[in-house]
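User: I'll paste a sequence; please echo it back and then give the predicted structure.

Assistant: Echoing your sequence first, then the prediction.
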Amino acid sequence: MTSPAADHLQAFLEARSAERGMSPLTLDAYARDIGDFLAYIGKDRSLATATAADVTAYLRHQAEQGLGPASRARRLSAIRQFLKYLVGEGVLAENPAQMMSGPRRQRPLPRTLSVAEVERLLETARDLAQTATGKERARALRFHCLIELLYATGMRVSELVTLPASVLDGDPRLLTIKGKGGRERQVPLSGPARLALNLYLGLTAEGWVDPSVPRATASRWLFPSASAEGHLTRQRFAQELKEVAAAADLDPDRVSPHVLRHAFASHLLDRGADLRAVQQLLGHADISTTEIYTHVLEERLKRLVHDHHPLARTAN
């Protein structure tokens, strides 16, 4: 005979599977993390009495057991989502973990590029697209479009290469991206990204000079390819990115699609963007994932105080 808490957990997992299309591995991880929390507070206890103190005590216990900050942050995220579900089901009046911050993760800061380095990369890609001829022109225009979209939106590389051609049917100033778990989000396109996209689409309409690459106008994919998947692969795009990085006199080992995603987020935050807004643009399900960029906010606040506080420079 199952307990009420176990029944609620099973219902939560079924709802996540139906609403977000989570993989079996992700659902198993949720089941383990939340099940461990329920075992700690007592499976037979009414979840209506769960408090923030329960969650705090559980996380402290996990730390004493040697669980690392990243794992504790993941468990807090799972618990927070479970308790939010219980609020929606009327089991809890409010989510006791809603305002709780996860443990600071002791992990290397995300690798990124400076604004100047990204500008050099984009300028090199643009120059190559303008000067290439024949078969190379098609590939150069496609790559320039890809990298402009990536830096303008912060998409995951898997989201970028699998963009459907139908993404162009809506507002040309926005892209609707289908991310993890089937969740959709809208991101604005910059002027340079729209221009690069129009140049790429214009070439596909005029006549595609590379027979090994299908035209975007004749495919369900925005970036079609002769690959088994029918679209450009992540590996091929990453390879082209490193080639252009070398042409831009950047260390190819420092440049990857994910590094550009980090650059997108870091540069936005450094210029005053809100962490919640960046979370939405990146498609993170939980704010704790976006908190890897809090070092950018901390540096921005330090500069703000140094530049504007009347007593900040008195010691100089």
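The two ends are 71 Å apart (CA to CA). Residues 4-88 form a domain with the DNA polymerase; domain 1 fold (CATH 1.10.150).
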